[in-house]
Structures are given as structure tokens and as C-alpha cells.
Amino acid sequence: MLKKSVQVLAVTCLIVTGSSLSVSAAGEDTQGQIDGIMSALPKFAVPMREVGDRFQNMFYAAEGGNWALASYMSKYMDNAMNPAKITKPKEYPDWATFYKEEFAPVNNAIAAQDMATFTKEYTAVIASCNDCHAGMGYGFIKVVKLTSPPDQGIEYKLASKAVDVPK
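The structure assignment produced for this chain is given below.
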């Protein structure tokens, strides 16, 4: 028992010593560590890839009557762009405005579970995305509605209500 206690004490001392060394090192090169973290965070391209997949999945969820999934995809499509708040602070407000204003009719159609309005607004958003891409110099990125959802492992035809998504 005493041997076990000594081992625990030794390991604890090593952890505390190591922690204080890393805190000391962090104080010496905090900006270097911050820069390292910043360089590891995704800018726009990686989150936009997730946005695109969720946007496409959203259509098939709505079409299949899985309104909760459509709402979920929209919510997490927006959240996917959060790293850009830090890594692209000048560009992020464009996304935030787009989602809050131009994408709102899509979200309203999901909440109303209105497929006709959803399809109309979803199609309008595709045009808006392409206009934005062109305006930012990325006209070679043209969004089209896929003929099938990117995520094949999801049940899109599961009847649900938009309000079924946990907060």
C-alpha cells in the first residue's frame, strides 16, 4: 500500500512539475502558440464544404418530410462557419448577414413545413450563393442542386416536425 502511495505521489509531482514548465514556456511564447492555433483552425474552405453538404441534405430531408432533419441541417450549417469568426473576421459578417437575411425565408419555410415555398426559397438561395461566390472572386465555385443527397447514410423520409429538433 505504501509503495502504491509513493508511486501516486511521484506521478503527481511529475505532472505538477510538467504543468508548471509548460505554463512557464507558454508565458514566454504565448503569441507563437496563439499563431499556431490560428493556423490550425479552418478558414472558409473547410467550413463551406460542410455548409454545402448540409445545404444539399436539407433539401432531401424537406422533400422526404423529415422537417426536423432539415431544421437540424440548417442550424448546424450556420454553426459550421463559427471558426471563420476568428480566422476570417472581415469575411464572416458577410456569412452572418447572408444566413440571417437571405437564408431566413428557407428557415421560415422549414418552420412552416411548406415544401412549395421551401423549394422556391432554396432555389433562390442557390442563385444568391453563386452571386456571392462570383462577387468574392470565386465564380468558379458554382452551387447546383445535387441529384441525390451527399450523405447516403441518413433516413431522409422519416416523418418529423421542424420543432422536434432539441434546442
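Interim note for the steering committee: Residues 70 and 84 are 23 Å apart (CA to CA). Confidence is low (pLDDT under 50) at residues 1-14.
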